[in-house]
Structures are given as C-alpha cells and as structure tokens.
C-alpha cells in the first residue's frame, strides 16, 4: 500500500471528489501513476486519545487491504477521514459503506476512460 505525501494530501483535500458516510469521509482524485495511493486521517478533533485514532486508522487500512483487489488497477489517490461513530463500529459494519464507494469509483473510472468523439 503506497501512501500519499503531505503536500499531495492538501491538494487532494482541496480539489478531490468527496463521499460522506456516517463513519468516514472519502476524498478521491484521479492520479497519473496508474495505481492507487492512500492516506488515513484521524485528527485530535476525532479523539484526543491516540489509541482511538490509531484504532480508527487500523480499521480503515484493514478495509482497504480486504478489498484491494478491486482497487489495484485504478489510478486514484484516496484519502479516508475518520468520523466519531467509527469508534463504536466493527469492520463488518463498515463494509457496506465502502462497497458503495467502490461502485461509485468504478463508475468514475469508466467515465474517465471513455473517449468522446464529436460528429
């Protein structure tokens, strides 16, 4: 799993597409690399306890690891931002939201790969 640099994270946060779920927010943008890159954010606003922030990022990383096969051929930079309800969830509860995101991502990659010709 390849991570995104801090400067690139700032750029993606300001110009990427956003999907908001109850447990996390995903911001993504097409990249020129041809493979996915990830960033996981759980700020002190999420929880003051480092153990909680680390657990949230661990859950999100595991979600990506489990479904990486669906992402491996897509060239997107994807940022996950944890939200407070995530603390009380298990991995199985997060999967339905993530699968919804994968459908949207698949639709976006199909639209971006099509070539439109004028008549």
Structural overview:
This protein has about 120 residues and is α/β, with parallel strands linked by helices. The protein has helices at about 5-15, 50-65, 70, 90-115, and strands spanning about 1-5, 15-20, 25-30, 35-40, 75-80. It has one domain: 2-Layer Sandwich (Ribosomal Protein S5, domain 2), CATH 3.30.230. About 20% of the residues are buried.
Blueprint (SSEs and pairs):
Elements: E1 2-3, H1 6-15, E2 17-20, E3 24-30, E4 37-41, H2 50-66, H3 68-71, E5 76-82, H4 91-113
Helix pairs in contact: 2-4
Which structural class do the helices and strands define?
alpha/beta
> Mean of the pLDDT scores?
85
CATH topology description: Ribosomal Protein S5, domain 2
User: Architecture, according to CATH?
Assistant: 2-Layer Sandwich
Ends distance: 43 Å
Q: Largest beta sheet, briefly? A: 5 strands, mixed
- The number of E-state strands comes to 5
In the predicted model, the low-confidence regions spanning at least 5 consecutive residues are: 113-119
- By DSSP (H or I, 4+ residues per run), the number of helices equals 4
Output the helix-strand order: EHEEEHHEH
The helix content is: 40-55%
* Total separate domains: 1
What's the gyration radius in Å?
15 Å
**Per DSSP, what share of the residues sits in E-state strands of 2 or more residues?**
15-25%
Give the CATH level 1 class. Answer: Alpha Beta
Shape assignment: globular
Strand order within the widest sheet?
1-4-5-3-2
Short précis:
Helix content is 45%, strand content 21%.
Features:
Ribosomal Protein S5, domain 2, 119 residues, five-stranded mixed sheet, alpha/beta, disordered C terminus
